[in-house]
Design goal:
Length: 466
């Protein structure tokens, strides 16, 4: 029997242990997609306790607690911090096979020096020990980022954002991590959502553009791209249940836009015509600026109307969609490619039924502008599991070039979530180590070192131009 989550956790062959400990383990981290707050990074405040550090805003933990029958007051309600942690500890003992169980223990080990398994019996002791470590140590955001050996963080930012804290962070001494904005235009694209008209006014004010038509929206967004570029942005990010592609005339799109600005309802096809036109303009701009375009596909958000009304969005009530994605995605990418305006693109799927779809889509639009210019993004959110990450890498290996993969990102709001990079690297070395042991790949240390270090860090730095 193996010891519980010891130094060789998941490393089940000599080759896996060698690849991880000698090549992957100590590589820096490039977190090219996350939801950390630049304001919190700049303000750099010490957390009050482990509950504030761990449970506040973490919908992964909340979902597990709800599934175990825990009352909402222990998730997002008014229970004390200690009560919330004890309920999480009680929940975690039942999360056998869930990556949350592994993430939590990696974080306890790496940041708190606690090897004790967290469960209902040990939760109070671990809560006290962790809080003692926080009291006597440095758990400020910048310190946790440095301790995790993170060299690049790309936050997720609205086009109307002032980027005030990104600018301030550039002036911080003794902090060698680049904190860069990412351009996330979802609010400008989601023409069917409540609040669209109000947001367009906000965007116009930020860009100093009077917006009276959909083309004015494009002008405003392109101006904000330039503003973000000056702040060091190299990544855009957009999220859809499916990638829209409906070609409409200018008059048709403007009619739809004016309806939305009056607060009238918009059909799905009408919305897709508007989104397509704006996305194509953005894609061409990203190409001009040399940015990478991330497209996250497949989330159905805010499924519970009851809980959305009670506690709002991004609180753990999203799930995986099952839309057909291949044809419209192909037409969207081709519409940019045919004009030589297709930027570097990373395609993320949230439904593993689409692994083969995306892994084969990559090869249609590659070019020498970048190595693996069109990337299959790492398994994320609901696929951020041992099986999900393994399946994603196998699909990319089967149908693409795994050795040029840009690797892991956290997609997280937590400053201790960098244990997920370790988890990914262990799973990667387990997979590749088995291939070497089985004679499926040459036991060539020089080449293997380049591949492992590339997927861990180097490929992303080169791809994004950090």
């Amino acid at each position: 029997m193996n010891n519980f989550m010891d130094g060789d956790f998941l490393l089940d062959t000599d080759s896996a242990r060698h690849l991880f400990h000698d090549f992957a383990e100590n590589m820096p981290i490039c977190d090219y997609h996350c939801h950390l707050s630049p304001k919190e990074i700049y303000e750099n405040k010490q957390p009050e306790n482990i509950s504030r550090l761990w449970l506040s805003g973490d919908h992964y933990k909340w979902r597990a607690m709800r599934s175990a029958g825990v009352e909402e007051k222990y998730c997002t309600g008014d229970a004390s911090d200690e009560e919330k942690f004890l309920k999480f500890g009680e929940t975690l003992q039942y999360c056998i096979g869930n990556p949350l169980y592994h993430w939590a223990h990696i974080e306890l080990q790496r940041y708190f020096g606690i090897d004790t398994p967290l469960n209902a019996r040990t939760a109070k002791d671990i809560y006290d020990r962790a809080n003692e470590a926080i009291k006597n140590g440095d758990f400020r955001p910048q310190s946790l980022i440095k301790r995790s050996n993170v060299k690049v963080v790309c936050t997720t930012d609205d086009p109307a954002d002032s980027l005030e804290y990104h600018k301030k962070l550039k002036q911080v001494s003794d902090f060698d991590c680049k904190v860069l904005p990412s351009f996330r235009p979802d609010k400008a694209l989601n023409i069917q959502l409540d609040g669209f008209a109000d947001y367009i006014k906000t965007l116009g004010e930020a860009a100093d553009v009077e917006i009276n038509s959909y083309k004015d929206v494009i002008v405003a967004l392109l101006k904000r791209c330039d503003y973000f570029n000056e702040a060091g942005c190299k990544v855009s990010d957009q999220a859809f249940e499916y990638v829209p592609f409906t070609v409409s005339s200018d008059d048709e799109i403007d009619t739809v836009f004016k309806k939305a600005m009056r607060g009238e309802s918009i059909s799905e096809s009408e919305g897709d015509g508007y989104r397509t036109a704006v996305l194509l303009a953005l894609g061409a701009k990203y190409h001009e600026l040399g940015w990478a375009m991330e497209i996250h596909i497949g989330a159905i958000r805010n499924n519970s109307t009851r809980m959305f009304k009670a506690i709002g969005a991004d609180t753990g009530f999203d799930s995986v969609g099952d839309s057909e994605i291949a044809k419209k995605l192909s037409r969207f990418l081709d519409a940019l490619d045919v004009k030589n305006e297709l930027p570097k693109t990373i395609l993320f799927n949230l439904n593993d039924k689409d692994n083969t779809v995306l892994a084969t889509m990559l090869g249609n639009f590659q070019s020498s502008e970048a190595q693996s210019k069109i990337q299959f993004g790492p398994a994320w959110w609901f696929l951020d599991t041992m099986d999900g990450m393994t399946s994603q890498m196998k699909s990319l290996a089967n149908l693409g070039v795994l050795g040029k993969f840009v690797g892991m990102e956290t997609d997280s709001r937590s400053f201790t979530s960098y244990g997920r990079h370790e988890y990914f690297r262990r799973i990667m070395c387990r997979l590749i180590g088995r291939w070497v042991e089985d004679g499926w790949y040459a036991d060539d240390d020089e080449v293997l070192e380049e591949i492992i270090k590339g997927i861990s860090y180097n490929n992303a730095i080169k791809y994004f131009g950090f």
